[in-house]
Fold:
Amino acid sequence: MAVYSIVKIGDPGDSVLREKASTVKKITPSIFKLLDNLKDTLYEANGVGLAAPQIGISKRVVVIDVGEGLLELINPEIIEYSDETELDVEGCLSIPGARGEVERYSSVVVKALNREGEEIEIAGEGLLSRCLQHEIDHLYGVLYIDRATRMLE
Structure:
């Protein structure tokens, strides 16, 4: 597979980071390739999550690995979230060198399709919850800096 350049704020073509990504209507070999390329790019960058818009592809596809194994999510959406929230520090591969405090739900349940086109639900808390929310935000053109209560040096 391939390792892609990650689109960063200020790059030509960075407008893809501010667009609402299109829904995947059919899982095809090109979606398999996209998932594989996202995985390779994520691991090469030593990240925990990567959304397709971050490699310049406006599709509702994300990959996440917070140390519990790779999650491949197609058309993910949050269907439940906790009343409790947590304030913690986040960064983003598309905004290198910056960090900010972001309030997120403590736990979420996400519905998505897996690589086989089967509907799955992922319940996440802690880092997984935060990562799911962060990556799904990318699919709506929202960056963590839009939600940050305070940016850090």
Remarks:
- The beta strands are 49-51, 61-64, 71-81, 85-92, 95-105, 107-113, 119-125, 148-152.
